[in-house]
């Protein structure tokens, strides 16, 4: 992987609109980078059909901030564009609001153990308490707790919880509360992971990547639909 020029501190948006070249074996196609956030990048190009899901490609980006050359993988396609992975080494060259992208989801989970570090006591629930997962990333999770009687026990930060999340696969982890605030659905908690089974890390990364791609396509299509409605309304006026 090669990088040229000085990129430290640049926002990822500097890449938007840059010329991007995808090279697969003996086939080369040139397009425009239209999206770069978190783990994914989108390139619009006329020969998008030449690339298949899982294809390994070399990507070259000609941006105002310099020249970027790296190996990546095609993970999704839309009409007129392909989505590729934005490698960690490339992401490190740019500043983003979050170190890891946080995606909104609607999944369930169970709270098994509550550990108050300050009081040095631990409570095991005979009947696990249901939680509703609102968002997730590679370093934390946001959720609400269905049983209001539990809310008073989580009075401050640094309370640790053993939870089991149902993400289409079971993922158990230990978390620490870092944020607590009122929401429309009760009390919202933001927690960071303390312990995650190593064998589950790749599954979590794949889950987040899949949802990030799906969310982006939904937003993109909604934006196109809204634009068409606005144009139609302007014509009828």
Task: Tag the structure with descriptive keywords.
single chain, about 240 residues, alpha+beta, Thrombin, subunit H, 2 domains, 15 strands, about 20% helix, elongated, disordered N terminus
Strand and helix map with partners:
Blueprint: E1 2-3, E2 10-11, E3 19-24, E4 27-37, E5 40-44, E6 56-63, E7 66-78, E8 81-85, H1 88-91, E9 94-95, E10 103-116, E11 121-136, E12 140-145, H2 148-151, E13 159-166, E14 170-183, E15 186-196, H3 198-236
Parallel strand pairs: 2-9
Antiparallel strand pairs: 1-7, 3-4, 3-6, 4-5, 5-8, 6-7, 7-8, 10-11, 10-13, 11-12, 12-15, 13-14, 14-15
Your description of this structure?
The strands form 3 sheets. Strands 3-4-5-8-7-6 form a 6-stranded antiparallel beta barrel. The N terminus is likely disordered. 20% of the residues lie in helices and 52% in strands. A hairpin with a 2-residue loop joins β3 and β4. With 237 residues, the chain is of the alpha+beta class. It has 2 domains: 94 residues, predicted glycosyltransferase like domains (Thrombin, subunit H), CATH 2.40.10.220; 97 residues, predicted glycosyltransferase like domains (Thrombin, subunit H, Beta Barrel), CATH 2.40.10. The longest helix is centred in the C-terminal third of the chain and has 39 residues.
